[in-house]
Structure formats: C-alpha cells, structure tokens
Amino acid sequence: MSGWTEQALRGAASWRAFKEGLALREGGAVVEAKKTESGWRGAVRVGKRVFRVGVVVKSATGFEVRCSCPENQASGEVCCHAVATGMQALAVTSAVQTPDEP
Ligand SMILES: [Zn+2]
After folding, report:
1. What's the CA-to-centroid distance between 55 and ligand 1, angstroms?
2. What is the pLDDT of residue 60?
3. Mean pLDDT over residues 14-21, rounded?
4. How far is the CA of 34 from the centre of ligand 1 (A)?
5. Cβ contact 86:40 at 8 Å
6. Distance between CA atoms of 48 and 57, rounded to whole angstroms?
C-alpha cells in the first residue's frame, strides 16, 4: 500500500505535528526524503541533531512511523518529522518522474 496523499497524512498526524512538519520543511530542515515501496523515508535536521524517519503506509489512513525523536519513541505518533519528509517526498515525486516506478 503506497497510495498515500497529503490529505491522508494530514488526517493521521495531529494538527500540531502537521503544522510543525510544514514549518520544518519550509525552513529547509529536510535533508533527505524518498518514497519507498511501502511508504517513505527521510531525515530532518533540527539544530545539531538529525532525525531519521521511516514510514510504512498500512492503509489509506494508517501510517506506521519510526523516528528517532522523543515524541515518536514515546507514543509511536505521526511526528512532525514524518510530516516534513512525507510532504517533501510527495513534492519531489510530483515534480520529477522517477524511472524506477514499476
Ligand atoms: Zn520525529
């Protein structure tokens, strides 16, 4: 399942995580963002730390997030880093056609 959209991501994240994620991305904090077969992965730089995020899309509204930040470690929630990288991955994919799509 990889048919995820901004809409679904917005629904799965808390409003605060979504807002923070957009701010991170707009601030250029996303250093890596890439779609994978099952979702996406990426990295976000915050200060001197880099948070690595991996997301598996279980369903249209189910996102399994693995991030090294305390928020995600504590609750498994869709954190702002997942939002930032997800939005970046969507933007990159729509701007550039990737030849390795099956
Ligand atoms: Zn995080």
Report:
1. 11
2. 78
3. 96
4. 16
5. yes
6. 29
How far is ligand 1, taken at its centre, from the CA of residue 48, in Å?
Answer: 15
Distance 71 CA to ligand 1 centre (A): 6
Q: Report pLDDT digits (tens) over 27-86.
A: 999 999 999 999 999 999 999 999 999 999 998 788 999 999 999 999 999 999 999 999
Residues forming beta bridges with residue 52, ordered by sequence position: 43
CA dist 54 → 25, 99 (Å): 16, 22
Domain map (residue ranges) of the chain:
6-95
The label of the residue with tokens 């915050």 reads 46
State the residue for tokens 């707009």: 26
Distance from residue 53's CA to the centre of ligand 1 (Å) = 7
> Which amino acid is residue 60, in one-letter code?
A
Please report the pLDDT score of residue 1 as a whole number: 46
- Give the tokens for residue 85: 């990288």
pLDDT at 2 (0 to 100): 55
